Amino acid sequence: MPHILITGASSGIGAALARHYAAPGSRLRLVARDPDRLDAVAAACRQAGAEVETARLDVRDRAAVRCLLEEADARAPLDLVIVNAAINGGHPTGDVETEAVAFETADINLGGALNVMLPALTLMLGRGHGQIALMSSLAAFAPLPDAPSYSGAKAALLAHGLALREKVRARGVKVNVVTPGYVKTPMGGDYKGWRPFEMSAEAAAARIARGLARDRDIVAFPMRLAILARGAGLLPESLRRLGMHGFRFQIRKRR
Ligand SMILES: NC(=O)c1ccc[n+]([C@@H]2O[C@H](COP(=O)([O-])OP(=O)(O)OC[C@H]3O[C@@H](n4cnc5c(N)ncnc54)[C@H](OP(=O)(O)O)[C@@H]3O)[C@@H](O)[C@H]2O)c1
Q1: CB neighbour list of residue 11: distance below 8 Å, 6 or more residues apart
Q2: Whether the model pTM is above 0.85
Q3: Is the CB of 8 under 6 A from ligand 1?
Q4: Which of the listed residues 82, 150, 185, 218 should we mutate to test ligand 1's pocket, taking the one with most ligand atoms within 8 A of CB?
Q5: Would the pLDDT of 196 be above 80?
Q6: Does the chain have fewer CB atoms within 10 Å around its N or its C terminus?
């Protein structure tokens, strides 16, 4: 019975991943802040036959996150932890992000991710088994001028994850970095700009699950955009910057 913990499971890709893994015999721990949306996802997963528990918490609360991971793991060793919760940063008029937004984005997208990943890693190293998926973004390869703190946090997760992967794989722990392109989710809907090759959250979840099952170091998709984003890093900076003009956007103010 696989035991899977997913942060940011109340919406978008996290919710789609929860539904993807929900089946008789699977055990899910779903984490987010909004209890109603979390409960709705949990109900759908139970309907599909999974055993589900929810935890309402903010990933910035390091002590609470550690407590949850230790408690969940003590009940049944966690096989897979998907570090997915994030916000998008940016500015409603496309101006420079405010300091408050930049710090909040870094705190949730990087600090919050480390709060989940590091205790999970300690538990998994202790028993020599487990898998951690870090939800980064193609923005880690091709930083978005309108979302610097988002791009920075995602690049840090990519680097941290790949470095760690090398360090721990001989000890039985798999670390994978997921770098999606544009996915149709509430977060995705807040970007007012060009979103080429956008895919559904369900299709993204299926791609992610397949990549994780194959233990891919980087699960990057869709392929055409992934090639462009990764190739952009090889261009002279002046050319890369020019190309990024097509990807300018503003962030819709959240409800
Ligand atoms: N959509 C895209 O185009 C796209 C592209 C590349 C990468 N990604 C990445 O994919 C992941 C999921 O994004 P999404 O598009 O599915 O976004 P989403 O629909 O906005 O979902 C984000 C999730 O994160 C949770 N969350 C946010 N802040 C949190 C906090 N402080 N503590 C706990 N949970 C928190 C939200 O739940 P609550 O509000 O209930 O807490 C929600 O469940 C993110 O890491 C994102 O960066 C998305």
Answers
A1: 32, 34, 37, 185, 186, 187
A2: yes
A3: yes
A4: 185
A5: yes
A6: C
